[in-house]
Amino acid sequence: MPSRRVARLPCAIAAKLKAPQTALHSLRSKQKMIIVYHLETSRSERIVWLMEELGLPYQLQVFPRETTGAAPRPLKEIHPLGKAPVIRDGDTMLAESGAIVDYLIHRHGGGRLALSPDDPAYAKYIYWLHFAEGSLMSLLLIALVLSRVKEAAASPVTARIRERMKQMLTFVDIELAGGPWFAGETFTAADVMMVFPFTTLRNFLDYDLAPHASIVAYLARVGARPAYRKAMSLAGPTRSYL
Amino acid sequence: MPSRRVARLPCAIAAKLKAPQTALHSLRSKQKMIIVYHLETSRSERIVWLMEELGLPYQLQVFPRETTGAAPRPLKEIHPLGKAPVIRDGDTMLAESGAIVDYLIHRHGGGRLALSPDDPAYAKYIYWLHFAEGSLMSLLLIALVLSRVKEAAASPVTARIRERMKQMLTFVDIELAGGPWFAGETFTAADVMMVFPFTTLRNFLDYDLAPHASIVAYLARVGARPAYRKAMSLAGPTRSYL
User: Fold this and answer.
1) How close A154 comes to chain B (CA, Å)?
2) ipTM greater than 0.85, yes or no?
3) How many CB pairs under 8 A join A and B?
4) Range of B80's domain?
5) Which among B43, B36, B38, B16 has a CA at the least distance from the CA of B199?
6) B26-55 confidence digits (pLDDT tens)
7) In this structure, is the dihedral angle defined by the CA atoms of residues A90, B112, B89 and B19, taken in order, positive or negative?
8) How far is B231 from chain A (nearest CA, A)?
9) CB contact under 8 A, B117 and A135
10) Chain A residues in contact with B158 (beta carbon < 8 A)
11) Contact indicator for A201, A209 with CB cutoff of 8 Å
12) What is the CATH number of the domain that holds B65?
């Protein structure tokens, strides 16, 4: 089990304190432990999950959202774009989910949870790893922004985006039928990247996943993983923004 | 210089025929040459550029856009989502820019244009590689979709997205000042991923890059690369959609 510290931020940002502060934790934190900056109910839950899957020690700093749902201003002090996730590894500050996943796996995880380029399932692995943000989240964000523009409710553009969402999720559902994981037989970082868009759907968008039986079954498999359960207890969604 | 075939599609899709059909080309095409499916004025220009930078042989199939600007239906026969880029490598069909870039570099390019995880610039490399689609294109697509919703013109959401675009491009501009390339001293696949969003800006969005001097200077450096020039002559933007 990885050691983990959940710290209170200096700038009066409340943090969840769920991990015991043992001597071991303190010792490891002096060894320049990786810090994971997590924004409540956001993509950064993936990085907590990844650290738990890899069994790497880390310190968790949680930023609650503002009452409007916006990211809080102090995240801007961590990274110029004020977004999460961000990690700190010694002098390196790194943002962007996909980049952090690649970085942690290949710099600290000995390549675990990645497939090597000569693996027959490499194309599948690398596809879903990039698809998660490059296609799926990208489309969901468009739908989310449109849902915030009251005047766009009756626009044919909105209807087209909803239709594209359904088409994309149907495609994912069909692909997952060959499961159990996105790359096939092996659980990989592609899964760590792919799960969050579905939880976002549930938390931010009014979209029913029930017709996508393979996705629903897949999420049940994910939910049974001890590392996922631990990560969600530390950094899982706390609010619905529907 | 890589060999290259630009093929006419069976389904009556016109293709640009710019490369000579020599015996060498025919021979190589029988050796299961990689096929790059390119949608006119789209992300897939990156993959053509990457193949030229890597000097790998490939066959290019160009799909013109419909008069509405939409991707043509036959792209759906290539990939269920009907998007580009897609490549074919033997029995493997692969979509998603970032995935294709990783796949080609690590499966066929011997890791060239990537930085290894122990390189001091690895974090920068992997950041921009993912940022291109995960953050920048994602935001630009939101702006593009909103620009198509007439009713949203006066919405505060639209204003906020424009503001975020400016903020993000200012951030990129500052980061690039340390150039010459996104990862620093070395030209990498992160550059191949990052350039297209800027050309998109010019072709699809009414946004003036002139205030971002480092980005403008960077694009001039990119434009001087022989592989980029060749790729643009084969697969560069042909129309403006403003």
Assistant:
1) 9
2) yes
3) 143
4) 4-107
5) B43
6) 344 455 799 999 999 999 999 999 999 999
7) positive
8) 23
9) no
10) 149
11) yes
12) 3.40.30.10
